[in-house]
Amino acid sequence: MSHIDCDICIIGAGSGGLSVAAGAAQMGARVVLVEKGEMGGDCLNRGCVPSKALLAAARQAHAMTKGAEMGITPVTPEIDFAAVKDHVARAIATIAPVDSQERYEGFGVTVIREHARFTSPEEMQAGDTTIRARRFVLATGSRPMVPPIDGIEDTPYLTNETIFDLRERPDHLLIIGGGPIGVEMAQAHRRLGSEVTVIEGAKALGKDDPELAGRLLDMLRGEGIRIEEGAKVTAVSGSNGAVAVETEKGRFEGTHLLMAVGREVVTEGLGLDMAHVKHGPKGIAVGDDLRSETNRRVYAVGDAAGGLMFTHVAGYHAGVIIRSMLFGLPSKAKTAHIPWVTYTDPGLAQVGLTEAQARKAHGDALEVIRADYDENDRAIAEGRTEGMLKLMAVRGRPVGATILGAHADELIGVWAIAIASGTKLSKIAGAVLPYPSLGEINKRAAGNYFSSRLFGNEWVKTAVRAVQRWVP
């Protein structure tokens, strides 16, 4: 048995835990990082990185079937599904050293590869090591949620933790869940040659703007993806290569089943009751400062904090608590400026309030401005004119933005920065951007806010005429 005293003990080596560990150790704190599984967490090994690598391969395959309007003869690509998975594995392996144990030990972090549990409000046990810390950070992440559907225990199914290990292409992939993970995997597998059926009990992409989400779903259906909404699942059955899903709208049959109905926070086995840490199904009970409501030594970041389940949120949380833990300064987590993206092609991105949320919050003060991709010269030149930006503005400032279209994931960043900093639309409208670029869509949307105020306004016309008459 060994004993360690430290300033900060972190449980979980995903995005949030690694960010806290690197920042705190490099600024002089004594840091212990405990991880029982893979360094890099779900995002690197089973989530963000492998899914985007798979989507990239699918996009490449899809591009080969297009191009006739540009004089390029479409061809049917020959897809080696196992080689696609090799590409996914290489992407993970290339990034892995950045999250490796060796790198963090180089920062001065003590890394322990064991399961950790509290033995008291001030101590944890990890293997044969007792850790006493001034502060604890729970960055334990989440895992795929598998609801208790009739027959699920006897039916083979995949989750995001297992689907990327699949070396043979599914002939017909059934996906239960029409959220971002479900539709991303649907498009990826459809473009790589699988038949795909998405089964959603309510509304697919139900957390996004209905107008633009609906347009995206129509595009996915146009690619041959079957999307069944309002199809509550009642039972599943089958064996390897032959599965079936029973719903209130009928029976669906396929060769493989993917569960993509959401995620659940990992908190069991941590001894939270021993540490007097209040928790529930949604995670650790924390305040805006991300500290436990019942044990002020304990913080939670990322999924464990019970809020938005995104990798970039975990990284953001790390910065919030580092300010508090290392410098004793007040610091609170906010959500109004947090973007999220469904990484389909085209993508669907959101930051701030949707139109419905903004109308509820601001009433008649809200103005909704639109800018279409087919009015952007770069989009026209590249044949990517499908899509739109919807901007929600109140008294000259953005309160939300929704983008459907090419590179929506990159374009949404401008609005995330604007909302976070309180930037006025006049600043964005006045920016000088390279021509031609998709970024001009953002500038056009901001400019459209002022168009109705300037063009056709009789007061403006009167003023202009007076200036032209009297000013030399």
From TrEMBL:
<protein>
    <submittedName>
        <fullName>Dihydrolipoamide dehydrogenase</fullName>
    </submittedName>
</protein>
<keyword id="KW-0560">Oxidoreductase</keyword>
<dbReference type="InterPro" id="IPR036188">
    <property type="entry name" value="FAD/NAD-bd_sf"/>
</dbReference>
<keyword id="KW-0547">Nucleotide-binding</keyword>
<feature type="disulfide bond" description="Redox-active">
    <location>
        <begin position="43"/>
        <end position="48"/>
    </location>
</feature>
<dbReference type="GO" id="GO:0016668">
    <property type="term" value="F:oxidoreductase activity, acting on a sulfur group of donors, NAD(P) as acceptor"/>
</dbReference>
<keyword id="KW-1015">Disulfide bond</keyword>
<feature type="binding site">
    <location>
        <begin position="140"/>
        <end position="142"/>
    </location>
    <ligand>
        <name>FAD</name>
    </ligand>
</feature>
<dbReference type="InterPro" id="IPR001100">
    <property type="entry name" value="Pyr_nuc-diS_OxRdtase"/>
</dbReference>
<dbReference type="InterPro" id="IPR023753">
    <property type="entry name" value="FAD/NAD-binding_dom"/>
</dbReference>
<dbReference type="GO" id="GO:0050660">
    <property type="term" value="F:flavin adenine dinucleotide binding"/>
</dbReference>
<keyword id="KW-0274">FAD</keyword>
<keyword id="KW-0521">NADP</keyword>
<keyword id="KW-0676">Redox-active center</keyword>
<feature type="binding site">
    <location>
        <position position="52"/>
    </location>
    <ligand>
        <name>FAD</name>
    </ligand>
</feature>
<dbReference type="Pfam" id="PF02852">
    <property type="entry name" value="Pyr_redox_dim"/>
</dbReference>
<keyword id="KW-0520">NAD</keyword>
<comment type="similarity">
    <text>Belongs to the class-I pyridine nucleotide-disulfide oxidoreductase family.</text>
</comment>
<feature type="binding site">
    <location>
        <position position="262"/>
    </location>
    <ligand>
        <name>NAD(+)</name>
    </ligand>
</feature>
<feature type="binding site">
    <location>
        <begin position="309"/>
        <end position="312"/>
    </location>
    <ligand>
        <name>FAD</name>
    </ligand>
</feature>
<dbReference type="InterPro" id="IPR012999">
    <property type="entry name" value="Pyr_OxRdtase_I_AS"/>
</dbReference>
<feature type="binding site">
    <location>
        <position position="200"/>
    </location>
    <ligand>
        <name>NAD(+)</name>
    </ligand>
</feature>
<feature type="domain" description="Pyridine nucleotide-disulphide oxidoreductase dimerisation">
    <location>
        <begin position="338"/>
        <end position="445"/>
    </location>
</feature>
<dbReference type="InterPro" id="IPR004099">
    <property type="entry name" value="Pyr_nucl-diS_OxRdtase_dimer"/>
</dbReference>
<dbReference type="InterPro" id="IPR016156">
    <property type="entry name" value="FAD/NAD-linked_Rdtase_dimer_sf"/>
</dbReference>
<feature type="binding site">
    <location>
        <begin position="177"/>
        <end position="184"/>
    </location>
    <ligand>
        <name>NAD(+)</name>
    </ligand>
</feature>
<dbReference type="Pfam" id="PF07992">
    <property type="entry name" value="Pyr_redox_2"/>
</dbReference>
<feature type="domain" description="FAD/NAD(P)-binding">
    <location>
        <begin position="7"/>
        <end position="317"/>
    </location>
</feature>
<feature type="binding site">
    <location>
        <position position="303"/>
    </location>
    <ligand>
        <name>FAD</name>
    </ligand>
</feature>
<keyword id="KW-0285">Flavoprotein</keyword>
<dbReference type="GO" id="GO:0003955">
    <property type="term" value="F:NAD(P)H dehydrogenase (quinone) activity"/>
</dbReference>
